[in-house]
Each structure stands twice: as structure tokens, then as C-alpha cells.
Amino acid sequence: MDLRLKDRAVVVTGGASGIGAACADAFRKEGARVAIVDRAPGSDRHADITDEDQVRAALDGIAADLGGIDVVVCCAGISGPVGTLAPDVSVADWDAVMAVNVKGAFLTVKHAVPHLRGAADAAVVLLASDSSMLASEGMAPYCASKGALLMLGKALATDLTPHGIRVNCVCPSVVDTPMSRTDMGRADGFSGVGYPVQTSSEVARLVLFLASPASRPVNGTHLLSDFAMSAKSAFPMD
Length: 238
Ligand SMILES: NC(=O)c1ccc[n+]([C@@H]2O[C@H](COP(=O)([O-])OP(=O)(O)OC[C@H]3O[C@@H](n4cnc5c(N)ncnc54)[C@H](O)[C@@H]3O)[C@@H](O)[C@H]2O)c1
Fold this sequence. Notes:
By secondary structure, the chain is an alpha/beta fold. The chain has a single domain (9-223), classed as Rossmann fold. It contains 6 helices and 7 strands. It has a 7-stranded parallel sheet, with helices on both faces. Strand 5, helix 4 (140-160) and strand 6 form a beta-alpha-beta unit. Helix 1 (18-29) packs across helix 6 (200-211), helix 2 packs parallel to helix 3 and helix 3 packs parallel to helix 4 (140-160). The N and C termini lie far apart (45 Å). Residues 14, 16-20, 38-40, 48-50, 75-78, 100, 104, 127, 129, 172, 174-175, 177-180 line the site of nicotinamide-adenine-dinucleotide.
């Protein structure tokens, strides 16, 4: 299938690591022109996505460099405290997770819109999670933030469709990345674990599909990639 991404101007936040880096590679392989926005050193545009001035400057700079912006992929995210039950979560941790995962995506799209408006087949993809729909113990801020991000995606699609901009979410279960290895104490990876784990490249393929004109009718929704882990009812069969 021709994804028609050649020469597209693509912004990937969080593209210095994990899923974002895999997305940046995959877009480049399709012939797209990619700019990475990340707070990590070595990014095309160094910015903390929780800071509105930095986000605006990064996106305006990329639009000037690339002659516009066609696609935005919001991958930048943090997990916050993992294994801390909700009553023990500090306000500082709560605020930090919400700031990156929700406000950061909002600011990125907000300041991309003036550039996306002029693009044909403009698309935004948000990296939500199966945690947008299912809670894991000890991850209240992350789950709340990803639930909010899923709804932000629908709200953005509602507001931006009249401007020719589609917005969708990808919702993966565990992906082998630096984030998940740290959170789950798997420094050497996930081989032999008793649950399914996907690769960053597998997630990137889903992102590219939703970013491509090939998915034109798909808008304001999410693609859940969780190996059917959430498909089974709790209804007892025996
Ligand atoms: N790894 C998983 O199992 C998994 C599963 C579902 C969803 N996700 C989501 O996918 C996205 C990418 O996760 P990952 O596993 O690749 O993580 P990662 O830690 O490997 O990469 C995250 C990137 O975001 C950047 N970042 C973080 N805060 C930032 C900020 N304030 N400003 C700019 N950049 C910032 C980091 O520098 C890093 O490069 C996240 O939104 C995450 O919640 C991950």
C-alpha cells in the first residue's frame, strides 16, 4: 500500500527515544521530511513541551525550515510514579504527568494548527495507551492522563475537522522501550515474560497508517493494539 507520505513535513514530539524514534525512522523510510521535538539533547528542535513559548518557537521554526507542517505525532510522554497507590501520589508527581501527557499534547497541536491548516490531508496522531481505557495498579496519574488524552483527541477532531485536520489516537499495551524497561524493571528486555509485548516499529506502522491519506475516513477515534487483552469479558464460563 502506498501511504503517500513522501515529502510530507512531519513533526514527532518525543522522537529522541522509543516509539517516537521508531516513528521518525519509519516516516523517513517513506520519504517524509521529519523534525523531532524533544527535551533530550540532539533533537532537531530542543523544547520542553510543557512550556508554551518553547513549543510555539519549535513549531514555527520547523514550519519555516520545512515550508509548512503536514503531520504531527505526539509521542512525548512520561509515566510518573509506577507502583505508588493513588493516596500516596504527591501533587508534584500528579501535576508533572498531567503537564507532559495532556497539556504538552494540547500545546503541540495548538501551535501546529496555524501550519496544519494550510496542508492537504493534514493529520495528528496522539500516542495514548491501553491505559486510556484500563487501569493498572499503582499508575493513577498515568492512567488519568492517558484517559484525558484519548478524550482530547476526540475534542480536537471535533474542533479541527472543519479545518481539514484529522486527529486520531494509537493505544498500545506494553511496548519494549526505555520507558517500559525502566518502569517494569526489565533492563535486559522482555524475552520470556508471560504477557505479550510489542515493538516500537509495530506501533510506528499504526501511527503511519493513521497519519496517511490512506486512512482518510478514520477520524476522532483510536486504534487499540493490545493482543485482545481487553477483549475478554469477566463473565464466568464455568
Ligand atoms: N512504552 C510503552 O509500553 C507505552 C505503551 C503505551 C503508550 N506509550 C506512550 O508512548 C509514548 C512514547 O513512550 P516511550 O515508551 O517511547 O517512552 P520513552 O521514554 O522511550 O520516550 C519518551 C520521549 O519523550 C520525551 N519527553 C518526555 N517529556 C518531555 C517533555 N516535557 N518535553 C519534550 N520531550 C519530552 C523524552 O525525552 C523521550 O525522548 C508516551 O506518550 C507513552 O506514554 C508507551
